[in-house]
């Protein structure tokens, strides 16, 4: 592994740790309210995602036309500002939206720099390390963040601000890297043309649509569990929910470690199998009624998700670097997957407002994911042979 990947792994770990600590801090703030409303947590997730959709035409080009290592610094500073607004009691929906702006800028720079550091042959392995580091950060960030937030939300927010600043400082050790001259003209029209060009490639379509389904399901599962766990497992605080979803994170780490041997870039189509398994485990979760069976189901759900998303991310970065730019490809991926996440989380928000139970929501989500994955695979042509320059 390239020595330059180590500071990226550390910076990503710290930033992702803070991302999840701040999420569970906000959840703790909501749960501590005397009269929490069922739609507020899904609404928080939605405002975070809005930035990815609205800013998609700009953040990819910004990441490609500037040193990505420096873009990571700017993104972390924006996240720290959002956490600071929460610390000063600004409306959480607005403050968390600012954190989402930083995350929208961070993502294309983080994934876009990987092809520069790892090259084609090391890209899947580098992605597995990044995903493993990210999920380890999610695992520890949500547990430590939830426990600290249950003790003091102010101290939790101060800690997240410090982590964002340390992450920003760590990226100073990354090489400046490649830059593209920024194109002239309307960024929205350029983004439309890039999307149209990129989706002409069958493997790119498969990766974009598949990743969108995965993240839509993952976002929806996370917000459903917050309502499902107190109802079925009798959990009553942010720490209990964080400890439950820890097993989901461990599963994703396990899947990320396994995937380089299972699904190389030349066999991307294999990724449909873990996508099917993930949908089955979502349905299975709705039938569990005790903590340990739920933990096992979440572990295997996470493992299937990790096996699926790592090669999909690697394929998008590889194809993007060869066509529209790796940062542009990641921004385009973020646009599609966050539109899908907004639709899924927004749909659940409406369902929760109409008193649909979390159990019914899990069953519906699993069935929808299973059917949608089948349709995506069914309507896409066979993957090009490995001799193709884009294969």
Automatic annotation (TrEMBL):
NCBIfam families: PRK11195.1. The chain crosses the membrane at residues 39-59, 93-109, 129-149, 155-178, 206-229, 241-263, 275-292, 298-315, 335-353, 359-380. Pfam families: MFS_1. It comes from Methylomonas albis. It is a multi-pass membrane protein. Keywords: Cell membrane, Membrane, Transmembrane, Transmembrane helix, Transport. The gene is lplT. SUPFAM superfamilies: MFS general substrate transporter. It is found in: Cell membrane. This is Lysophospholipid transporter LplT. InterPro entries: MFS, MFS_trans_sf. Its main location: membrane. It comes from the Bacteria.
């Amino acid at each position: 592994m390239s020595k330059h990947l180590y500071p990226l792994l550390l910076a990503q770990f710290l930033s992702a740790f803070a991302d999840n600590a701040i999420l569970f801090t906000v959840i703790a703030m909501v749960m501590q309210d005397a009269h929490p409303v069922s739609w507020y947590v899904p609404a928080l997730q939605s405002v975070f995602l809005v930035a990815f959709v609205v800013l998609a035409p700009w953040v990819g080009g910004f990441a490609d036309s500037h040193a990505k290592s420096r873009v990571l610094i700017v993104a972390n500073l924006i996240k720290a500002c959002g956490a600071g607004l929460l610390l000063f009691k600004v409306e959480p929906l607005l403050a968390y939206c600012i954190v989402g702006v930083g995350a929208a800028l961070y993502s294309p720079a983080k994934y876009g720099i990987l092809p520069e550091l790892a090259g084609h042959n090391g890209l899947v392995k580098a992605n597995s390390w990044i995903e493993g580091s990210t999920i380890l950060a999610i695992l520890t960030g949500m547990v430590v963040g939830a426990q600290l937030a249950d003790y003091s939300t102010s101290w939790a927010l101060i800690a997240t601000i410090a982590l964002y600043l340390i992450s920003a400082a760590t990226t100073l050790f990354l090489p400046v890297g490649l830059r593209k001259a920024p194109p002239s003209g309307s960024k929205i029209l350029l983004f439309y043309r890039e999307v149209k060009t990129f989706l002409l490639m069958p493997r790119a379509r498969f990766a974009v649509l598949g990743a969108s389904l995965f993240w839509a399901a993952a976002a929806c599962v996370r917000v459903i569990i917050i309502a499902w766990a107190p109802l079925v497992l009798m959990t009553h605080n942010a720490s209990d929910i964080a400890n439950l979803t820890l097993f989901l994170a461990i599963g994703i780490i396990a899947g990320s470690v396994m995937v380089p041997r299972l699904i190389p870039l030349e066999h991307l189509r294999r990724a449909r199998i873990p996508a099917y398994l993930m949908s089955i485990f979502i349905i299975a979760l709705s039938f569990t009624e005790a903590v340990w069976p739920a933990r096992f189901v979440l572990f295997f759900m996470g493992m299937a998700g990790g096996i699926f998303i790592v090669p999909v991310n690697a394929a998008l970065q590889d194809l993007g670097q060869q066509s529209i730019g790796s940062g542009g490809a990641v921004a385009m991926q973020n646009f599609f997957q966050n539109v899908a996440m907004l639709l899924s989380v927004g749909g659940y928000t409406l369902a929760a407002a109409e008193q649909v139970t979390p159990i019914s929501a899990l069953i519906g989500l699993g069935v929808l994911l299973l059917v949608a994955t089948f349709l995506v695979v069914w309507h896409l042509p066979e993957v090009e042979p490995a001799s193709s320059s884009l294969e």
